[in-house]
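Quick board copy: two proteins, each given as sequence then tokens.
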Amino acid sequence: MRLIDYVNQGGAITWLLVLMNITGLTLILWRFWVLRDFGKALDDRAEGIAQELKKTAGGNALSIAKDFITAKVSELEYGMTVIRVIATVAPLMGLLGTVVGIFEAFQIIAAKGLDNPGDFASGISLALITTIAGLIVGIPHSIAHNFLSGKLDVLEIQLEKRVLPRLAGN
């Protein structure tokens, strides 16, 4: 069976999971690229932040530097909430599909009995496909969110280590 056949068999919930996966993976790849580029130019960015702080805050630059750096790094967090929501919601959507599939299977048993196991199996198949799809979407998004969050924390610490000495030298 082809992948598209599995997705079709999983129904609307699986198609929603496919859409969530495409959206999330796009954001993940974009965040990896943005954070990589930010990290490559960390010294230049630190110098720019130090100059901006000296210009705008004057003698108070050192006291507001950490908050300023935190604000700059938080700009890099764009899209992270969506990744976290997908990581959280995808397994729940899979569980919803599981419940719907089992419900359909029991409705078929109630209506037709167990004379034709193929009818019963379609509901169970829906349950299993949506469960698998929810986990396939949720697990990588959870891993990526944790990795990217850690990378943001490291970038913030590295930025502080480069900016604060430039300000203290005044």
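And the next:
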Amino acid sequence: MAAYNKFQDFVEQLCLAKHNLNTDALHVYLSNTVPSASLDAVKADLAEIAVGNGYAADGIDTLNTFAEAAGTGTLTGTKAVWTAGPASMAAFQYVVLMNFTQTSPLKPLIAWWDYASALTLLNGETFSVKFNSSDSTGTILTIS
């Protein structure tokens, strides 16, 4: 998987208790717009790809959990999979993680992964987001 990049506002929102990383629904969505670590704070700041052909609005829930051990917190999430059809899915280069539950601010952004060039899924092709390359549940981020 591509490298993890954090949105700067995530740190502030986390410290202001706007995220419950264990119970809030975190979604991954696809974008073909270049993210800005300093300027993008909520989903409205960073467009997702067009809905249709296997892509649904607001992406896929990561079924996340958060646990702490010896002073280090670990956020894990399940694999997300998109399958294109009946035609090609819109091109995307970025996978974006947002807090789907939070309403103030509305759908705050957490992180993104850059795949270096735009990808287009043809009918029947799949794209999987595997956190830490795990085929089921993997580490999204750690806080220490």
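Board note added afterward: The first helix runs from residue 8 to 15.
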